[in-house]
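User: What would this chain look like folded?
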Amino acid sequence: MTDRPTPETDQPHDLVGIGIGPFNLSLAALAHGIPGPIAATFYEQRPAFHWHPGLLIEGASLQVPFLADLVTLADPTSPWSFLNYLRTRDRLYPFYFAERFHIQRAEYDAYCRWVSEQLPGLHFGHQVDAIRWNAERAHFEVDFTQLDAQGEAESLGRAHTRHIALGIGTEPHIPEPLKPLADAGSVPVIHSADYLHHRSRLLEAGHITVIGSGQSGAEIFLDLLRARPAGREQLHWLARTPAFAPMEYSKLGLEHFTPDYTRYFHALPEAVRDTLVPQQWQLHKGIDHDTIAAIHDELYRRTLHGGWPDATLTPGVAVRTAGRVANTRVELHLEHTEQGTRSRLTTDAVVLATGYRERPLGRILEGLAPHLRHDSAGRPRIDERYRLGLDPSVTGHIYVQNAERHTHGVGAPDLGLAAWRSAAILNDLTGTTPYPLPERTAFTTFGLAPHTPGIPAQNTALIPLAQSN
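Assistant: Here's the prediction, encoded as structure tokens.
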């Protein structure tokens, strides 16, 4: 491998993006449209863009409208819009007649790949190894390894930048009781993120258990149900939630995914924010109505000639422990939280639709540890403009994307806020307004004193509850 260049050989970029998922791809697309231009480059370890390839189940749709593409809600005239993608593919009229407000996941993936293959400044096959602050030159140093087609190290490099955007995404969450089985691989215990890669193997199993009540769990259960013969389905669907509940999709409910609510949430005390997030699970962990209806329709269809399908759907269940039986099966030790009862379930395969967790930023920011500021729970402080809290000696900014649910609320991973957040970051980075953003985005007024952009929340004239009598 070649050595990294010395810091003196490179001029600093305005922005280096780490990770190329939908959110940093949105940032790159909007940065490309700024006159000037911004000197920006983005690095991604994977060899190409792929969005949840293991979950691109045939017919599965996004839970957000097509307007929640990479750019439209900040710049409807951008050449990187979904509608322009359709135009370049001569598909505008078919899309027009299809009358689809929610597109399929596979189509969203294809659209993002189209952007990633044409947008300049994107470097796939580049693994970022370390980030440091160079106080003498007042910029960040980003060390990376260029990988070959097999993912092996090929050469080393270093980029210099005034600012950084972290978009390293999330990673599959596997509950502790099932980690040893998932790691062993002798029995199919797989996360939903890898579902399509293991679908054939799963369908060969006698009995299959799906764990998780969110959209992914529902789509996988429906796909397995449709593939199994009537009367011999041998399926279990378990969930910790008290019900297989629909996602909150009322028009006013959706206003929790607006910039207005994001600003309101950020201004709340830390303890209040931590209480709110788990209470709002139906805003982002429920199942869309069409999928619930399709599951019920499929189950009902299998009763038409008498009998019930061999499918068990049980909410309110936690997996206490798990182990192998004769090296070929899995035994799940279950507890029903409302009944206070326990039982065992033996199954041949398990699909864990147990969601994702934000990747810890500490892994990649180890070189900046002395400069980072944390909250009382040890999490990074992130201000209203999506900037990590750093000590004043660091004059550059590190922006974060989809790592700020604890500070910005349930909208952090939502595709509908991607373009707005990217535009807000670029406005802050440039100190101008290349993307004017609306001051109001919701009919709901969150809180008694609406937070005015640019005015600190502590300056609002709220009377503390204890003094109101």
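DSSP finds 13 helices and 17 strands in the chain. If you want, I can go into more detail on any region.
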